[in-house]
Amino acid sequence: MLEHRDLETQGHTERVAELAVRLGRELGFPDLEGLRLGAYFHDLGKLALPDEVLKKPAALNTGEWRLVKTHPEVGFEILQDLPFLPQTALNVVLYHHERWDGSGYPKGLKGEEIPLEARIFAVVDVWDALVSERSYKPAWPPERAREELRAQAGRTLDPKVVEAFLGLDRVTPR
Questions:
Q1: Does residue 122 lie within any of the structural domains?
Q2: I want to staple 94 with a disulfide (CB 3.0 to 4.6 A). Which of 8, 51, 76, 152 is the partner?
Q3: How is 92-156 classified by DSSP, letter by letter?
Q4: For residue 10, pLDDT beyond 90
Q5: Cα 114 from Cα 95, distance rounded (Å)
């Protein structure tokens, strides 16, 4: 539904779900199905955003940005009472914008306070955003995206997860 509303992200969900499972497998993460489901539902809360914000072709103002930052908690609220969803999936939805250095949202978690599943997902989410064309930027070449992941390792992204991701065979943009 979200990709139907926001064509800019078309294919994003499928790509990040596949990459998250590959990376989770590489790291020996025990709940690959929960990781996959979390990847599929990670931006569900964006359905609550008005089109004027979700589809805005220019930079967001402070109020709009504040509204966008509510989407992890909104998604979690929508999903939390579904008995078939494992905690892993809920953690991806709620914590996928937390950052290794504590600068993320919604809780400002830092380092290993962030559930591993969310740290795994964050790396593939950033990768896909970098190598995909968006209304505000062209797609980056894979080597430039790899350099950016290396630069963010230990800052916004878990350095061990970045290292594992960069070691995957045939990481490609599409």
A1: yes
A2: 76
A3: HHHHTT--TTS--SSS---GGGS-HHHHHHHHHHHHHHHHS-BTTBPPPPHHHHHHHHHHHBTTT
A4: no
A5: 7
Q: Per the confidence metrics, is the pTM higher than 0.85? A: yes
| Digit-coded pLDDT (tens) for 22-33 | 999 999 999 999
Beta bridge partners of 137: 134
pLDDT above 70 covers what percent of the chain? 91
Total count of domains within the chain? 1
> Considering the domain boundaries, does residue 54 fall inside one?
yes
Q: What is the CATH number of the domain that holds 25?
A: 1.10.3210.10
Q: Residue 78: phi, psi to the nearest 5? A: -65, -40
Backbone phi, then psi, for 134, in 5-degree steps?
Answer: -130, 165
Cβ count within 10 A of residue 148 = 16
Count of C-beta atoms within a 10 Å radius of residue 145: 20
SS3 category, 80: coil
